[in-house]
Amino acid sequence: MKKKIIATLLTVAMVLSLVACSSGGDSSTTSTDAATEEAADDAAAEETADDAAAEETSSVESPVAGMKVAYIMLMTPATIFNMWSESFTETAEALGMTADTFFCSDNAEEWQTRIETCAAAGYDGLMVSHGGQEYAWEFLSGILEQYPDLKIVTFDTPFKDENGETAKIEGVTQFFQQDAGFAADLVEYLMSLPENAEKVEAGEPLNILQVQQGAGYNSPFDRRQVGYQPYEDEGKIVTVERIAPTDDQNATSSMRDVTTATLAKYTDDEIDGIWCCYDAYAQGVYQALSELDRDIPMVSVDISNEDIQYMQEEGSQWKACATTNWTSNGEFACRVLALELADQYEDIAAASCYYEDIGDWLEIPSSIITQEQVTSQEGITIENVGEVADESYSDVSWMPTCDWMVELLGH
């Protein structure tokens, strides 16, 4: 702006100097001085107006600016969790906060120690992920008793009290993926396949080989069963058998062996689809199908680059994955934590994904990624699958927001 004023004054001075030289005499001095002063006044007025406009259009002050937050994940780093971490960090920085990420190598003790360390170090807010329902409620309750100003948001961390009953922690927002929605979407997808159309139109149930742990194995799997079960109750599907790994430490290879043994009991015509509750299990199922050259469509919950590569293989029977957008997940998590830090719980509750009947509970909507989509163009990975996915995959209208977030984040 100062350069602009100087340039204006120089231009005016040069012009008036030329006028003075051509007219001659001392009278031109007064005229030149007056014109110069007028130009300076105009330039100063312009600077003031521009500064006022800039002030008016500048970003609103963030109520969480200067705060420090962390994302603490129980598990080891993976592509989807790194996508989450990067999005969480970018969102935090856009809101004026600083953010750190800590992975805990599937070690519950390390997870708890990291939370204790961050709380003691003066972090303002923690986004903690995948805590076990057998210890999370008691542990986090204790942390907040010791650090009452700390704000905590949890992902995939159910709360059970000492009696095993569902519990809440005041001020702590829990959120999950829409696990029941995953399950239902996958059943619907199997019902939509051309090879199953005749049976569906005739009102006959589809025969499904279900890859799922029994009740109580973990909370996400239990919620996925909630989405699957109504189709069985309504006679739309028949579960011919439920199978799961016999070795949880080597789930994929164990699932390949279990699937190989199971398929020996059935012909392709006796199974209309294989429904998998988890993609690590699904990878073993896919390997067995490929090795046996079996023609049975399969679907699964969750997604990874390895899953996409399997779906892209010629003749692949892996037809679809139900998932969420892991980049959006990170932004969503940071938004919820920021609103807690700003004590704007009403804006969290206003989100379309909030469950008032449960309270302080949100679910990230489900999306289906199909084989047709990931093979529709070259180079599709988990990082760019949004280019070919349905619009729902990139939709963010369900996220909580408020006026200052709209100003700072754009929505």
Write a structural description:
- This protein is globular.
- Helix 1 (2-23) runs antiparallel to helix 2 (27-57), helix 3 (79-94) crosses helix 12 (326-341) and helix 9 (251-263) packs across helix 10 (279-292).
- The chain starts with a helix and ends with a helix.
- It has helices at 2-23, 27-57, 79-94, 108-120, 136-146, 179-192, 197-201, 219-233, 251-263, 279-292, 305-312, 326-341, 345-349, 371-374, 391-394, 403-409, and strands at 68-73, 98-103, 125-129, 151-155, 173-177, 206-211, 237-243, 273-276, 298-301, 318-323, 361-364, 367-370.
- The chain has 16 helices and 12 strands.
- With 411 residues, it is α/β, with parallel strands linked by helices.
- Strand 6, helix 8 (219-233) and strand 7 (237-243) form a beta-alpha-beta unit.
- The protein is 48% helix and 15% strand.
- A 6-stranded parallel beta sheet has the order 2-1-3-4-5-11, sandwiched between helices. A 6-stranded mixed beta sheet has the order 7-6-8-9-10-12, with helices on both faces.
Helix vs. strand class: alpha/beta
Main beta-sheet annotation: 6 strands, parallel
Radius of gyration: 30 Å
Number of extended strands: 12
Q: Write down the secondary-structure element order.
A: HHEHEHEHEEHHEHEHEHEHEHHEEHHH
| Model regions low in confidence, pLDDT < 50 over at least 5 residues | 1-36, 47-58
Spatial separation of the terminal alpha carbons: 31 Å
Q: If helices are DSSP runs of H or I spanning 4 or more residues, what is the number of helices?
A: 16
Kindly report the average pLDDT value. Answer: 88
What general outline do the C-alpha atoms trace? globular
Beta content: 15-25%
**Helix proportion range:** 40-55%
Q: Largest sheet, order of strands side by side?
A: 2-1-3-4-5-11
